[in-house]
Recover the amino acids of this structure.
């Protein structure tokens, strides 16, 4: 592993650890203000939503993204699995699409 690969690996791990670190308070139902859109709502609008449930769901998505990023970094930089880039891309886009659809259908997070 040369120096540029090492730098890329370190950056990838730092991003993954940041995602995992952000997911921890969200998984505990705290920090709903971190969820985009929820933090810009008025107090009356926030009263209609279950903030802790939304935070826990967002934490699960962030945790999955963080763990996928760790696996991607290890696979790419340690084992040179170039095809893993496409798997990682599809996984992140799939998780993002799932989260958008899940949050906006079925009134799951409404009080």
């Amino acid at each position: 592993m040369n120096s540029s690969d090492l730098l890329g690996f370190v950056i990838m791990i730092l991003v993954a650890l940041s995602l995992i670190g952000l997911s921890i308070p969200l998984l505990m139902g705290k920090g709903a203000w971190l969820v985009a859109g929820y933090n810009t709502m008025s107090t009356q609008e926030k009263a209609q939503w279950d903030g802790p449930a939304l935070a826990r769901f967002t934490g699960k998505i962030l945790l999955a993204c963080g763990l996928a990023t760790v696996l991607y970094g290890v696979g790419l930089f340690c084992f040179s699995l170039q095809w893993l880039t496409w798997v990682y891309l599809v996984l992140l886009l799939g998780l993002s699409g799932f989260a958008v659809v899940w949050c906006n259908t079925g009134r799951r997070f409404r009080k």
Remarks:
- The longest helix spans residues 51-77.
- The mean pLDDT is 94.
- The chain is about 70% helix and 0% strand.
- Helices lie at 3-27, 43-46, 51-77, 84-104.
